[in-house]
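Re: duplicated header lines in exported structure tokens

Our pipeline writes sequence and tokens for each protein into one text file. With two proteins the header for the second block appears twice in some exports. Here is an export where it did not happen, for reference. First protein block:
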Amino acid sequence: MTTSGTLKEISAQFATRQPKQVDWLTEETPVLDVIPFEEASHTLWNVYDEVSDVSGGGFVDMDAPLDMIEVDTRLNKVDLSILGAKMFCPEDKAKAFGGRDSYFAKKTPKALRKLGVDAEKAIVYGNFRQYAVDHARLIDAGDAGNENYSLLAVRFVPGETTGLFSTTGFKQGGLIDMRAVSGGGLYENEQGILGYGVRMKGYFGIQIANPDTVAALVNVTPDSPPTAIQVDNLLDMVRAANGTYLFCHRKALSILAEVGKGAAFQMTPGDKKVDRRIAEWNGVPIITSYNFQDGAEAHVQVD
């Protein structure tokens, strides 16, 4: 059975020795915090069956033979990416901090927060938004300039549109495998400075195997807001149901609030299931993140 869950749920299962890692990773990443992740089929990639066509089946008369249903699939593969970095501490600075381990312990939370932010930006722009652009899953709010916001609709479906992880990096009891460089001893870095180093590494990825799960409303500005029907159409493009989210910058949320005055847009208190949710559109949670560009997205041509 495939192991799945949010990063916090996965951490509770695999990262019991370093439970704070997931808090640091997701502290400034509301989108990353709600994405469901599944265990990849292999250490560095995931192989999955993508349904290309379904035919046959349906109603038949009483006692009549059942029609044969055919499900055509194609085998696909998506590679995982490395979420990681290196840290270096000069020998004298290590002494000032009370030793090598003390230095890295103080720096690790900031380093993991930075990794989380970088990961979320890559997911938002390199995966979800880019997929919508590449597959013409777009609605145009109309602004022609290059100071825009976007609104992403994503419906997560097990085995189709989901995050991926490899348990290989969890051997030390954390989501990110941290190991000393050069066995923890002194070594000379590229600048010829003696010191100590650690490297951080985890294997994660995003799989989108169903075009009806990702779409984007682009070219949004305060002077060129989307209409309420455009937001509804965006949700229809991903066949909004359980597991659907709207992702955007917090200022884009203010634009939505003006557009959806009345029944469509509602402010909501957080709950245990989606503790980052602050609003919803007709029941679909809206998750805001400062890792979206703040009115700096280039115009997207929508045919």
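Second protein block, exported in the same file:
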Amino acid sequence: MGRKKNIDREMLLDLAEDIVRTKGAASLTIEALARTAGITKGGVQYTFASKAALIESIGTRWLSRYEELLEHHVGPAPTPVERVKGHVAATFEDENSADGKAAGVMTMLMQTPEFLQGTREWYRDKLENVDTTTSEGRMARLAFLAAEGAFYLRFLRLMEIDDAQWAAIYQDINVQLLER
């Protein structure tokens, strides 16, 4: 009997994100991932029991990266506006995390309604306690929406936004909306 082959879960998630990024969310199947990884479908299913589990793992991994970035920018117990500022900074900072977010969100939204509900809750939480009766709160909300819009335009490849433009957009959002 041969030695049991180890399958690198993180490598499979990287490959799954790449499939979504380059071929679209509908192209992410257990079979496509197995072919890309050079393993059997059973090997993928051993690591991820189902396509839903794979999709959930993409989202969970991105969320973990995001929370680390956010904590780095805001520290413990930030105000709601500081959380928005941290979100904007995290959105523009890490390409790898951003690719994971784009892949995860695209895949989740296109696959099943339960993932859509979780995504809605995640977004609602980002602005839930921002006091939009104040100028600072309204600017924070606008900065959040601008950052998310720029993110999706870039990472869904709806607009060609190079690194220099990306940095300039961040600077504009930060200076014009958050540092007023």
